Amino acid sequence: MQKTLIIISSLLALISPLVYSHSILKGESKPHRTTRFVLLLITSLTTLSLFVQGNKVAIWLAGVSTIQSVLIFILSFKFGMGGWSKTDILCLFIAFIGIFLWQTTKQPVLALYFAILADFTGMIPALAKTYRLPHTETWVFYFLDVFAALFSLLALSVWTIEEFSYPLYIMIINAVMVLLIFRPRILPRTIKQSR
């Protein structure tokens, strides 16, 4: 059963960037460049951290997330938005601090937490953009990643904080993005008043 859940999680995580790439190429989604750069660095570090820990479940989600990040980062050059605002630079700086702390601690578990913190920091520009411009993102991409993370969590045989923290974070951050994208439909009056 565990292998089946890992396969489902990995397939969903592989399908989601294809959906997102299609949406980007059609002009329906505009990935935030800073977020995509930070996510590329962080997913790579997270995958390496999980590999060093000997993690046999969450590493699949992290590895696929790294592949996903490479593809979307490349597309963000031509089709994305943002990248050099003060908030972008600050988030990039904080993410680099997380990377530095990962390098200096040499402790895989601590590195994972710094990676999650840096990942969240890197997501801030995309969260802010999606809050202001929800039409620049596609909910399907993030929704698939919610379920990829959920199946990764369900595949765990040992429930330690080291094992479940990364998939749980991925599930939550993607669910928040889905909610931000649907916010105009859920709270249409609030959106109209904020314009």
Explain what you see:
The chain is 83% helix and 0% strand. It has 195 residues and is an all-alpha fold. The protein is globular and about 45 Å long. The mean pLDDT is 85.
Whole-angstrom Rg: 16 Å
Instruction: Spell out the helices and strands N to C.
Output: HHHHHHHH
- The count of strands amounts to 0
Biggest beta sheet attributes: none
Distance between the termini: 49 Å
Transmembrane segments: 6-25, 37-52, 58-77, 89-105, 111-128, 140-160, 166-182
Keywords: Membrane, Transmembrane, Transmembrane helix
Write the layout of secondary structure elements.
Layout: H1 2-25, H2 33-53, H3 58-79, H4 86-105, H5 108-132, H6 139-154, H7 161-186, H8 188-194
Helix pairs in contact: 1-3, 1-6, 2-3, 2-4, 2-5, 4-5, 5-7, 6-7, 7-8
Entry keywords:
single chain, mainly alpha, membrane, 83% helix, 8 helices, 195 residues
